[in-house]
Design brief:
Layout (H helix, E strand, L loop, with lengths): L7 E5 L3 H12 L3 E5 L11 E6 L2 E6 L4 E3 L3 H10 L5 E3 L4 E6 L4 E6 L10 H5 L6 H14 L14 H7 L4 H16 L8 H13 L7 E4 L3 H15 L3 E3 L4 E8 L2 E6 L2 E5 L1 E4 L3 H7 L8 H5 L3 E11 L8 E4 L6 E4 L1 H4 L5 E7 L10 H15 L8 E14 L19 E3 L12 H35 L3 H6 L1
Parallel strand pairs: 1-2, 1-14, 2-10, 7-16, 14-20
Antiparallel strand pairs: 3-4, 5-9, 6-9, 7-8, 11-12, 12-13, 15-18, 15-19, 16-17, 17-18
Bound molecules: flavin-adenine dinucleotide (FAD).
The site of flavin-adenine dinucleotide has 37 residues, from helix 1, strand 5, strand 19 and helix 13.
Length: 474
């Protein structure tokens, strides 16, 4: 008896979406070839080493956090066997301060069920006046009822909705933007109401534990890229790094060719898991209705400012600041391999103002601000200072962006899309990327099953239609 050959798929792009798609496909029995243009897996979640004094520092390209409600991402970490390499708060606890006034506050959830779990945190939030706090609670309750999937929700900004619900500019900046900028990578004034409502409803308001914050204790490259590579190789997958895909061609209804500079790969199907601008260039003509719509999806930058001090200056895992370019500062010492002193990373989302700024200017501004946020900085010595910039960190989630995000399936049979920019309902996050990859892996498998069913129907029809006279003469 001959064994049925395994179906084959080429996954293009080794970010979280591609990795999730590749492993999902392999788990369904597909023979996977993963092509990644860079020298490492992990895409937007990666790490590098930097010479530091007599040794080296391991640096993530940008601080990444997840929430307890990121169920697909957390399940993916379990599949990779690395969930125990992350830390997840048992209860949301976000220290926030105003460097101008020195006032500190904490957004800490109570053990009460949703939506009461945050009411005490909001009513005691010292960065707003008592009246602003009451109005903020009322707006949060109303936000729970926004119909985020209604097309009209993607025509408004979250900021205009908040203003219409009694929120002052100060309340928006000092409370709502603390979450909006960090999760959607744009301030409320720019963000589509539908995506902001999704984040607040699923991430904060509807389930008490949803908002607890998690971080990796090891470099992102190890957490995602290295761990996924091990799983894929165990599944007999093939991984090609520094393999930039130049063209994707449909050969027949269920046969594809993917070209890199010095090789071609044929497969039954393709998952294209690259950023949206790269996808727009690689998608074969006719695969999607309107490539221009996709090209119109804009991007939003994130900058990280990294500082190594000779001593501890941050005495919590992280702290947020309002009214300051320092949005959040994280203690990165543990994951970096630093043995003494402290390494902190300032995560600056929606970083249009900083993305092209020279390092010297960034240093002047951020060191002065850090000294206000973390008073210990004034006495500390800086041992290293550097900046990482991700110009296209996420798509820009402005009104109208929902219509530009594409579904998993394309018009071309056997060609599927994945990526945090696809139509997952989530902002461009690790959760969104993993969800999109899983969706592509499942769509691939269900397409294969349909193909198999069609083939078997065609075979039995052919069998039934066979001419008995011819059979007798044969
Ligand atoms: C600095 C920063 C901080 C962030 N912080 C957070 C956070 O705190 N929490 C959170 O949830 N999310 C965060 N995000 C967003 C999150 O990292 C991304 O949404 C997610 O990782 C995107 O995954 P992806 O697989 O869709 O895309 P990508 O990671 O961009 O992967 C696409 C891959 O395709 C490859 N590729 C492109 N073109 C080709 C080609 N022609 N051939 C072969 N390969 C190709 C690329 O090299 C890349 O590896 C952050 C992003 C950045 C940049």
């Amino acid at each position: 008896m001959t064994a049925t050959p395994r179906p084959t798929v080429v996954v293009v792009g080794g970010g979280l979406a591609g990795l999730a798609a590749a492993i999902e496909a392999a788990d369904h029995g597909w023979a996977v070839t993963l092509l990644e243009s860079r020298a490492r897996l992990g895409g937007a979640t990666t790490s590098f080493t930097r010479a530091f004094e007599d040794g080296e520092l391991t640096v993530d390209n940008g601080q990444h956090v997840f929430l307890r409600c990121c169920t697909a991402y957390r399940e993916f970490l379990r599949r990779l066997g690395v969930e125990d390499q992350t830390t997840l708060q048992s209860r949301l606890d976000v220290p926030v301060m105003d460097p101008k006034t020195g006032v500190h506050a904490r957004l800490r959830r109570d053990r009460l069920p949703a939506p009461l779990h945050l009411s005490r945190a909001l009513l005691t939030y010292r960065l707003l006046s008592p009246w602003q706090r009451v109005r903020a609670v009322a707006a949060a309750l109303a936000l729970n009822f926004v119909r985020r999937s209604a097309p009209s929700s993607d025509t408004l900004t979250f900021g205009s909705w908040l203003s219409a619900h009694g929120q002052s500019d100060a309340a928006i900046e000092r409370l709502f933007d603390v979450f909006t900028v960090a999760t959607v990578n744009a301030p409320a004034a720019q963000v589509s109401l539908s995506l902001a409502a999704m984040v607040f409803q699923d991430g904060l308001l509807r389930h008490a534990g949803a908002c607890d914050i998690g971080v990796s204790r090891i470099p992102l490259l190890q957490l995602h890229g290295d761990a996924a590579s091990k799983v894929l190789i165990e599944q007999s997958g093939e991984i090609r790094l520094q393999a930039r895909v130049r063209a994707i061609t449909q050969l027949t209804d269920d046969r594809w060719r993917v070209d890199i500079d010095d090789a071609s790969f044929e497969a039954d199907a393709v998952v294209l898991a690259v950023p949206h601008d790269a996808a727009a260039e690689l998608l074969p003509v006719g695969a999607i209705a309107d490539p221009e719509l996709l090209r119109g999806l804009d991007v939003s930058p994130i900058v990280n400012v990294h500082v190594v001090f000779d001593r501890a200056v941050l005495h919590e895992p992280f702290v947020g600041a309002v009214g300051s370019p320092v949005q959040f500062v994280f203690d990165r010492t543990g994951a970096s391999g630093l043995s003494d002193g402290q390494y902190v990373a300032v995560s600056v989302s929606a970083a249009d103002a900083w993305i092209d700024e020279p390092v010297a200017n960034i240093r002047d501004v951020f060191m002065a601000e850090l000294a206000r946020v973390l008073p210990g900085v004034r006495d500390a010595t800086v041992r290293d200072f550097f900046v990482t910039r991700e110009r296209a960190a996420t798509f820009r989630a402005v009104p109208g962006s929902a219509a530009r995000r594409l579904p998993t399936t394309t018009r071309s049979p056997g060609l599927f899309l994945a990526g945090a920019w696809t139509d997952t309902g989530w902002p461009a996050t690790m959760e969104g990327a993993v969800r999109s990859g899983l969706a592509a892996g499942r769509a691939l498998e269900s397409w294969r099953r349909t193909q198999v069913a069609f083939r078997s129907i065609r075979a039995s029809r052919a069998e039934n239609n066979r001419d008995p006279a011819q059979e007798a003469s044969a």
